[in-house]
Design brief:
heterodimer, A: alpha+beta, six-stranded antiparallel β-barrel, six-stranded antiparallel barrel, 15 strands, about 30% helix, about 20% strand
């Protein structure tokens, strides 16, 4: 018997182990399915509970570690993606900003051109639209360059305006561009009217680009804020265009007893982009009613473009406002040198400080600026004007 | 013990022993990897690390009783975590441990080729035993899945070549 167990020790142990396991298995199979699946019951359940309970802390630690590494990895991947996405979005943002700036520029240009077109449609005279492409680059010289020249029909002396107000006049014409002398240049000049008081003066530029209206006596009442418009008598700027508003009024220390009237330009002369060049001045035809029929042509012209006495002694009552424009014209229609309107005069023909007003037969004066710029401007009839010795009488205005 | 000693003295086959940390720690680690790590590394499920350890310990010790007891313990523990009927893997691994230890006495199981073929055969046998017990004793109807069984057996055979070579360093001479 002892030899039997010794000889078949291994198979017997195997059988014993298998029998135990089969019994345990049969015990589990005998129970209902739901109980067996849930692990409920005696021995098997205890084994499972103990084992699972013992292994759960390790399982939780493993899961936590796995989650840590997985989250770390995902965070790294996410961070990498976020950086890449951030770069892409940054590039997209830059492109959108550029696009926005371009659209904004185009919108502003569209608004400017729309306003310019609207003004051009309302303004009956023929004009040529041009763009400002350059300037003088100096604070003492106020010149701009426009992209239209003689090929486009630009001629010297043409007025340059914007819907806001006058800008200047064409001084140099080239085939594809032109040079415009702005009204705030010290060599520039224009005939203007104070809209409220109807006082006429000469618009001049100062050294630093300020605007000044000269030749108005100090006893005249000029209000700050009063609008100033073109008189139209200079033959360059159409009549009635805004020039600016009076910003300051005071006695002119350089030319007593005249006023020094400072203007704020109606057009933003420092930010010009689109301008109109007036190629032809069309003045409105006077009303053809019977009341004006008896007037003489000289009187009509004198009323429209009155002049001033040549010298103070020519007027028996100095500073008299009651002098007739026609009388003044009659007194100053002496034979004078005739020069085409708008053409430049030699610099030595004008006083360096004051523009020389040259009488025209029809009452139009020519302002000679120190820089050889000559403008046909209207002058006030009761105002003494300094005269150059060699005055030139230009042809009557159209 | 006597069987191992007599086999060694009669056929000149080496009998190895393992320390307690190895004998307990490796099966626990194998079950741990099989049950928990496979949740994140799905390809591990194709292997059966507890079965591979049963085979390794059995053929290394070349003693049937320690081999079948190791198989019973590892199989039962595997059943615990499998949330199935306890005894399916226990009975199958008991038989595999017994047969592997008996086989190790007779043939050389140190060669990689023989290790691959032996593991392949034991994996197939384990599957057959498992399904026989499942269908015959438990009354379940688990499908055979011969294709998957064959692929799993080949994969375990290849893994055994690598794993056994690594575990050989843990062997201790008596």
């Amino acid at each position: 018997m002892e030899n039997f167990f010794t000889r078949y020790k291994n198979p017997l142990v195997l059988m014993a182990v298998l029998v135990v396991q089969v019994i345990a298995l049969a015990t589990q199979v005998k129970r209902p399915d739901n109980t067996r699946e849930s692990g409920a019951g005696g021995g098997p359940r205890l084994i499972r509970v103990w084992t699972v309970t013992a292994i759960t802390p390790f399982e939780r630690a493993l899961v936590a570690t796995g989650h840590f590494f997985r989250n770390t990895w995902h965070n790294y991947i996410d961070l990498h993606n976020v950086r890449r996405q951030n770069r892409e979005l940054q590039g997209e943002l830059d492109r959108m900003r550029l696009e926005q700036a371009r659209l904004k520029t185009e919108a502003e240009q569209s608004r400017r051109l729309e306003a310019l077109l609207d003004f051009k449609q309302r303004y009956m005279g023929p004009t040529i639209a041009a763009q400002v492409i350059g300037n003088s680059g100096s604070d003492l010289s106020h010149l701009i360059t426009i992209d239209k020249g003689s090929f486009a029909g630009i001629r010297q002396g043409m007025a340059v305006i914007t819907p806001d107000g006058i800008v200047g006049k064409v001084r140099g014409v080239y085939p594809l561009s032109s040079q415009v002398l702005m009204i705030n240049d010290r060599e520039s000049g224009a005939g203007v009217i104070l809209e409220g008081s109807r006082l006429q003066g000469v618009l001049r530029g100062k050294d630093l680009g300020d605007l000044r209206v000269n030749d108005i006596l100090s006893d005249e009442k000029v209000e700050v804020g009063e609008r100033v418009i073109t008189s139209g008598g200079d033959g360059i700027y159409p009549k009635g265009l805004p020039v600016g508003t009076v910003s300051a009024v005071g006695p002119d220390p350089e030319a007593s007893p005249f006023l020094a009237i400072s203007l704020k330009s109606a057009a933003d002369l420092s930010r010009l982009e689109d301008v109109l060049v007036v190629t032809e001045i069309e003045e409105a035809a006077p009303a053809a009613d019977g009341s004006e029929a008896p007037h003489r042509a000289a009187d009509i012209l004198a009323q429209r473009l009155p002049s001033v006495p040549k010298k103070a002694e020519d007027n028996p009552v100095p500073g008299s406002a009651g002098a007739s424009p026609a009388t003044a014209v009659k007194k100053q229609t002496a034979p004078q040198k005739i020069s085409p309107a708008g053409q430049d005069q030699p610099p030595d023909q004008a006083s360096p400080d004051q523009p020389a007003v040259q009488k025209k037969p029809g009452g139009t004066g020519t302002v000679k600026t120190p820089g050889a710029e000559t403008h046909a401007v209207p002058v006030k009839p009761n105002r003494p004007q300094p005269q150059a010795p060699d005055q030139a009488v230009e042809k009557p205005p159209r | 013990m006597s069987f191992a000693a007599s086999s060694t003295s009669r056929e000149g086959i080496e009998v190895h022993q393992f320390g307690w940390p190895t004998s307990i720690g490796l099966p626990l680690l194998a079950i741990f990897v099989q049950v928990f790590v496979s949740q994140w590394l799905g390809f591990i499920k194709i292997f059966d690390f507890p079965l591979l350890l049963v085979i390794f310990f059995a053929v290394a010790r070349r003693r049937p009783i320690p081999g079948l007891i190791t198989g019973a313990a590892i199989g039962t523990l595997q059943d615990v975590f499998a949330h199935a009927v306890i005894g399916l893997n226990g009975i199958a691994n008991t038989l595999i441990g017994y047969l592997a230890s008996s086989l190790g006495v007779r043939i050389d199981v140190e060669n990689p080729g023989s290790r691959f073929l032996m593991t392949l055969a034991f994996c197939l046998l384990h599957r057959v035993l498992y399904l026989m017990i499942d269908r015959g004793l438990v009354g379940a109807n688990e499908p055979w899945l011969w294709g998957h069984t064959l692929v799993s057996a080949v994969a375990n055979g290849l893994m055994a070549v690598v794993l056994f070579a690594a575990l050989d360093r843990l062997k201790q001479r008596p």
